[in-house]
Design a protein that fits this description.
heterodimer; A: mainly alpha; two-stranded parallel sheet; B: about 110 residues; 2 domains; 3-stranded antiparallel beta sheet
Chain lengths: ~280, ~110
């Protein structure tokens, strides 16, 4: 039966892009409050960075062999409350990928196992390489980070060009990673988030326990497939609530079988679906 | 209370405790600094007080500089010279405060 479960998207869902843009503005107010960690992927060497990048702080603290209390505290608190919602609604790098995905090009899906690479990046480039080889190693995370290349190298190049100085290009590896990620953005939805983002990997760890989640109600399902069709990331609706790849974009919530449910609310099988 | 809410609340409290303790403790915070003190034997060629520029010192200090380089690495010595973070204690020891920023400021 075709999409009998359709319900109009909520006001919040309809304005996701605007909310993402609002958060991007917040992260880019040049407050220079680097003693505060933001919970999003945004290089703090960017001239417009307001807060410190948690991934950069984790990598740097690993190189210093120091425990990153504030970065982990920020990520723990945010992850426990919102989990993947941060990726879908507040991350500026996610916004960039969402905008690129709007270009009408053929889109390909990443296989589910690609999400495991995020943990390899987290454990290897953010923790192990800095810990054992220090921040000067070419594989130190910030030295290959595409957000750093886009948010720092580009403004720096423009600045140097305007000042009539020689442009300092990122190193070849970083440039290669950045070009590959940017090119992939047009053909894969959120390629960075789906396969490489160490911050997404951390928030993915909270997907099973975060306070707010998208729950699938099997008793409301008439197997019309609407929720699966609306999910741009290939996440199976039956496990969406706990899938570490889910960015909580709430597209699936157009189906009556999926709904945002706070953790404190007991879920009863005969709960009526909310409408917009 | 559902089990998920208990886990989420516990994780949030743990995160909050980490966050608060991070700001409460002295020293390295988010982009703070880590200081390492290194004490080297007295060197008669060194003047009292801060040492702003190693290269201009008499040959005896060259030896001290090499000791520093061996201890901290050449780059650290250059950084220390720039920062003037080397001083002499009352006992004649050379005191080096190595300062590392907790933030990669130039990822390019």
């Amino acid at each position: 039966m075709a999409h009998q479960n359709y319900k109009p998207p909520s006001k919040l869902s309809r304005h996701r892009l605007a909310i993402q843009a609002g958060f991007a503005v917040l992260w880019m107010i040049p407050l220079r409050m680097f003693n505060v960690c933001s919970p999003v992927f945004h290089c703090y060497a960017c001239p417009l960075a307001a807060f410190a990048c948690p991934v950069g702080v984790l990598a740097q603290f690993s190189a210093l062999h120091a425990f990153p209390f504030i970065a982990l505290g920020t990520l723990g608190l945010t992850g426990a409350l919102f989990g993947g919602f941060v990726c879908g609604w507040a991350c500026p790098f996610g916004l960039l990928q969402d905008l690129a995905a709007k270009v009408p090009t053929p889109k390909f899906e990443l296989p589910a196992w690609a999400g495991s690479f995020r943990y390899v990046v987290l454990a290897g480039l953010v923790v192990a390489v800095p810990w054992f080889f220090g921040e000067t190693h070419p594989l130190f995370f910030c030295r290959v980070c595409p957000a750093g290349a886009l948010e720092v190298a580009v403004p720096a190049a423009v600045q140097a060009q305007l000042a009539g100085q020689a442009i300092i290009w990122p190193n070849a590896l970083k440039l290669g990673v950045t070009l590959a990620v940017v090119a992939a953005m047009f053909f894969i939805r959120r390629p960075w988030c789906g396969a490489l983002c160490p911050l997404g990997a951390i928030f993915g760890l909270f997907s099973r326990i975060s306070m707010f989640t998208v729950r699938f109600f099997p008793d409301r399902c008439n197997e019309c497939g609407l929720c699966d069709k609306t999910c741009a990331y290939g996440v199976d609706s039956a496990v969406r609530a706990d899938d570490p790849r889910c960015i909580r974009c709430l597209e699936c919530a157009r189906c009556k079988a999926c709904e945002v449910v706070p953790a404190w609310k007991p879920v009863l099988p005969d709960d009526p679906p909310k409408t917009a | 209370m559902p089990r998920r809410a208990i886990f989420a609340t516990t994780a949030a409290i743990f995160g909050l405790v980490l966050l608060v303790s991070g700001y409460a403790r002295p020293g390295l915070q988010v982009v703070g600094k880590k200081e390492v003190e290194v004490r080297l034997p007295p060197d008669p060629g060194m003047p009292d007080g801060p040492v702003p520029a190693w290269m201009d010192k008499p040959p005896t200090t060259q030896k001290v500089m090499e000791d520093f380089a061996a201890t901290l690495g050449e780059q650290s010595v250059i950084t220390l010279v720039t920062m003037g973070a080397i001083s002499r204690t009352a006992g004649g020891e050379l005191l080096v405060t190595e300062t590392k920023a907790g933030s990669p400021r130039c990822p390019t």
